[in-house]
Amino acid sequence: MPHGSEDDPASAPLETSPDHSVAAEARPEPVAGADDTLGGYFEIHDRPPAFAGDDGHPYTVSMEVEKTADLRAPFRPYLVFPRWAETGVGIVGHVETPTLAECRTSEEARKHLTSLTLLEVKKLLDAALAAGQDASA
To answer: CB–CB of 40/32 below 8 Å?
Structure first.
């Protein structure tokens, strides 16, 4: 999943003035361990994390929330793992988790997903692969 420098605002030239140094304009230093959760990773790196599945294929992850007719807990978070071609040029399939929680608000559902550690996300990917929840793109 290529990301060109033209898409990355951090790669744009920094304008400076005598009152502003280049260092002041740079991104803040990441906090150690801040990108060990799914939400932290997205926030720091501005892209989804990549994983190697137990099947040997490369995957990224997408956080999804489905709205249902259940009035008590209408929001259901789950993860979708797009499988990338070995060349990285395109998506050739995907796997997804079952519903991970039943939530009262979309914010609660999103928080459930963003608080998952990357280790938990990797385990969910491998469990989806083992369950045979593969779907063609």
So the answer is: no
The C-alpha atoms of residue 113 and residue 37 are separated, in whole angstroms, by: 9
- Separation of alpha carbons 60 and 74, rounded Å: 26
45-48 long-range contacts (CB < 8 A, ≥24 apart) are 46/8, 47/1, 47/3, 48/1
Tell me the Cα Rg of the chain: 18
pLDDT in tens, 47-100: 999 999 999 999 999 999 999 999 999 999 999 999 999 887 899 999 999 999
Residues in Cβ contact with 2 at an 8 Å cutoff, skipping those fewer than 6 apart: 88
Other CB atoms within a 10 A radius of the CB of residue 9 amount to 9
Give me the residues paired with residue 51 across strands: 59
